[in-house]
Amino acid sequence: MNILKIICVLAFLSFSCSQKKDPPTYDVVVYGANSAGVIAAYTAKTMGKSVLLIEPTNHMGGLTTGGLGYTDIGNKFAVTGLSRDFYRRLGDHYGKFEQWIFEPSVAKKTFQEYLDKAGIEVQYGLRIIGVKKSDERIQSIELENTFSPSSRTNQQVRGKVFIDATYEGDLMAKAGVSYAIGRESNSQYGETYNGVQLMTGHQFPDGIDPYVVPGDPSSGLLWGISDGELEPDGTGDDKIQAYNYRICLTNDPANRVEITEPEGYDPSMFDLLVRLFEAQPDRTNLGNYFIWSRMPNNKTDINNRGGFSTDMIGMNFNYPEGSYAERKKIIDAHTHYTKSLLYFYKTDTRVPQELQSAIQEWGFPKDEYTDTDNWSPQLYVREVRRMVGEYVMTQANCVGEEVVEDGVGMAAYTMDSHNIQRVVTEKDGKKMVKNEGNVEIGGFGPYPISYRSIIPKKAEVQNLFVPAALSATHIAYGSIRMEPVFMVLGQSAAVAASMAIDNDQAVQDIDVAALQQELRENPLADGSTAEILVDNDDAGVEIQGNWERVTHGGYGPSSLHDLSKGQQSATVRYVPFVKDAGEYEILVYFSRTADATQQTQVLVSDGKMESTLTINESDIRVEGQTSGEWVSLGIFSLSPGTESHVKITNQGADGVVVADAVLWVPMQ
Questions:
Q1: 3-class SS at 219?
Q2: DSSP classification of residue 4
Q3: Of all helices (H) and strands (E), which one includes residue 148?
Q4: Residue 347 CA: distances (Å) to CA of 259, 357, 428
């Protein structure tokens, strides 16, 4: 009888194993539901592919829904496709054409609308622990429960193409893809602003003593100062720029949760800040210590500013290669630091009274992050791993010395790095504290991002895209790493993934020209009529008069300025090619400029009749980091062809007239 029981058990187990289902297989598996991941998943699903969107945490939208509402734009010309559509949808919410400053909850709701429209349900709380490859292709990934890891609940997911949309590049790393951490030396890629950089931005004034007892090294360093040696400028290392939280507060008493003392609060963490107060010539100006950006509905997006602020400098070096447990400790330390900093400003008697009074008006908003005690669940991990892919974007790309032909997105922000370490330096025989690593170099126009920079080397993996932890040097990544750009690259990756699946190709072998055409002609990935942009730099724009070409502060590569105050006739005529008949809203871009004319006369034609409109400078409200705004001329019914036009004139001008870009947006 015992033998019979054993046989029955074995038979049952054999039957159970035979009934066990194979792991599910998807066309496109997107790992990471940040801004890049959401747009990638939506794009792939809209293009008819089966999609799985996985998020290791419980938070969707990354930094865009995590407090970074004061969008780092650079030049809106670089924001295309669904990324641009996202900011248009925010505009719908706030009653504007586009909106670039916004509340976290509104951004999250907007992303959720994309997912709901496509029928995508995010799989939250699953993090990668393994990758199975065969013949340089990822076959499947293994996931564990983020919040209660157990081998009994691990899941296998198969995919034809994978997109690692995470900031960290965790899937990429586990797939055996080459990557870099930290700063390359300037000599490696012939750069100027990589490696160690001791500059003046977000810096301490000379003379602030670094020791607990001033002048006594034996007393030890104040909290936050490293005992490391400062290497020569341009030296490479494995250090990464500081992380922080983009802090959302409110001064609306009806919506405010008070800032209270965090557990383990230690005011000695801010002794160095007190010395900065004492050394600061204008010690009572809040703007010397925070970038305090106002958001809609009495809220903020607060960022780092000055020598000692929200950046927790030098405390994140172990994050890129850290275990999940070690990363959590680093995140928790940043949370504790930031909450302690706010509480210190609110309560410590060493804070100048004017600063303290200003901070005491603010608290956490009740209607934001309602499931995480009104605190952002997303640390601003500015830079983690960076793939070393088929092509490495460098400083030469940023400044236009090298221009790629396989661009699938653009960047336009300054080459930007926050400080990396806080060290002791010496000047005229006196020891003092300085921050090192800050770089802010701009002055260049939008530039293309190579398709080869979002794919690995073919010898490593042939079915993977990496749109966030992409292939770029530290200093080039500092220009590219903006949320609107990540969305653009997420869409490009998803379109390319669909092409690779349809043609049974490695991602390195797809027709990039066809990809570029698809992105250009189908910008919303749904087959709808594309809007028409005519920029002053485009061929066929008719320019009459003495216009000055200005290469900064406009939309796209340049704008045209007339300085004659209407004394010499000058016009710029824009003619679109209308493919589909229908109603179009026509908009003109007005760049922010000094001594602008109070009125600009614009002639607009629908191909049948021409109207004269006057745009008042006082009606143009430029907000956030953008250089200008679109102004609507109205809605017009247009026929196919080139009969419509817009002409900007300097007639009646009393100041500088700007002619930049004109947009024809089809009414959906």
A1: strand
A2: H
A3: none
A4: 10, 10, 37
- Residue 562 β-bridge partners: 657
> What span, in angstroms and rounded, lies between the C-alpha atoms of 413 and 398?
9
Q: Return the H-helix or E-strand segment holding 188.
A: helix 186-189
Length of the chain: 668
- 626 φ, ψ (degrees, to nearest 5): -75, 155
DSSP class of 93: H
Say how many CA atoms lie within 13 Å of 47 toward its Cβ.
Answer: 27
**Helix, strand, coil proportions of the chain in percent (round to 5)?**
25, 30, 45
pTM of the model: 0.95
Give the chain's largest Cα–Cα span.
Answer: 110
At 614, phi and psi to the nearest 5?
A: -120, 125
What three-state secondary structure class fits 376? coil
Can you tell me whether residue 542 is helix, strand or coil?
strand
CB 234 within 8 A of CB 185: yes
- DSSP-derived secondary structure for 102-146: --HHHHHHHHHHHHHHHT---EESEEEEEEEEETTEEEEEEEEES
Cβ-based burial of 391 (10 A; exposed 0-12, middle 13-18, buried ≥19): buried
CATH class of 25-181+441-521: alpha beta
| DSSP code for 34 | B
Q: Which of 249, 243, 251 is nearest to 378 (CA)?
A: 243
Q: Which residues, in sequence order, are CB contacts of 538 under 8 Å at separation 6+?
A: none
DSSP string, 441-484: E-----EEEEGGGGS--TTT-SSEE-SSS-SB-HHHHHHH--HH
Q: Is residue 110 exposed (0-12), middle (13-18) or buried (19+ Cβ within 10 Å)?
A: buried
Check if CATH label 3.40.50.620 holds for domain 532-666. Answer: no
Instruction: State how far the Cα of 402 lies from the Cα of 514, in Å rounded to an integer.
Output: 23
Buried b (16+ CB within 10 A) or exposed e, 64-83: bbbbbbbbbbbbbbbbbbbb
Tally of CB atoms within 10 A around 430: 11
Q: CA-to-CA distance for 487 and 80, rounded, in angstroms?
A: 9
Integer Cα distance of 285 and 281 in angstroms: 10
Mean pLDDT by 10 residues, the chain (668 residues): 43 39 90 98 98 98 98 94 98 96 98 98 98 98 95 94 98 98 98 97 97 98 96 98 98 98 98 97 93 98 98 98 98 98 98 97 98 98 98 98 98 97 96 98 96 98 98 98 98 98 98 98 96 96 97 93 95 97 97 92 97 93 89 97 97 96 95
Q: Residue 407 in contact with residue 448, Cβ under 8 Å?
A: yes
Distances (CA, A) of 488 to 36, 39, 62, 83, 491: 7, 8, 15, 6, 5
In this structure, are residues 492 and 44 in contact, taking their beta carbons and an 8 Å threshold? Answer: no
* β 25-31/51-55 pair status: parallel
652-654-659-664 Cα dihedral, nearest 10 degrees? -60
The pair of structure tokens assigned to 273 is: 């800040």
Which residue, among 489, 437, 453, has the nearest Cα to 243 in the 3D structure? 437
Domains in the chain: boundaries:
25-181+441-521, 532-666
Q: Residue 414 in contact with residue 483, Cβ under 8 Å? A: no
Do 578 and 638 contact (CB within 8 A), yes or no?
Answer: yes
Q: For residue 3, what pLDDT is reported? A: 52
The residues, any chain, with a CB within 8 Å of residue 592's CB and separated by 6 or more, are 553, 622, 627, 628
Question: What is d(CA 32, CA 37) in angstroms, rounded to the nearest whole number?
Answer: 5
Residues 6+ apart with CB under 8 A from 639: 578, 581, 607
